[in-house]
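Hi everyone, sorry if this is the wrong subforum. Our group has a chain we'd like a structural model of before ordering constructs, and none of us has done structure prediction before. Sequence below.
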Amino acid sequence: MKLTGIEMFKDLSNMEQAKLLGMLTKLELPAGTLLFEQGDPGDRMFIVERGTIELFLKTEAGGCRSLALLGQWEVLGEMALLTGEARSAGAQAAVETTLRGQL
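Answer:
Right subforum, don't worry. Here is the predicted structure as tokens:
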């Protein structure tokens, strides 16, 4: 996995990228697996290595509204991690997905 294609990591040296990758754990999610819910603590971020993550909001009627689909090399969870705020949306694997993140 190379981080150079990800905007937030593009200016890191090869050594810095290697260090960062060494801290990330591989996470395999079957399709439909909930990664986190809206309102959960924002204590981790993830990089989509393979597959698709759907971001969604819970509606007042008890359903869900899809916000976005994130694919390969996209990052999620970084804003909550940086601000310390709760998750503003939920996330689940739309298909079988592999993530890298700090668990």
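For your construct planning: Residues 4 and 10 are 5 Å apart (CA to CA). The mean pLDDT is 88.
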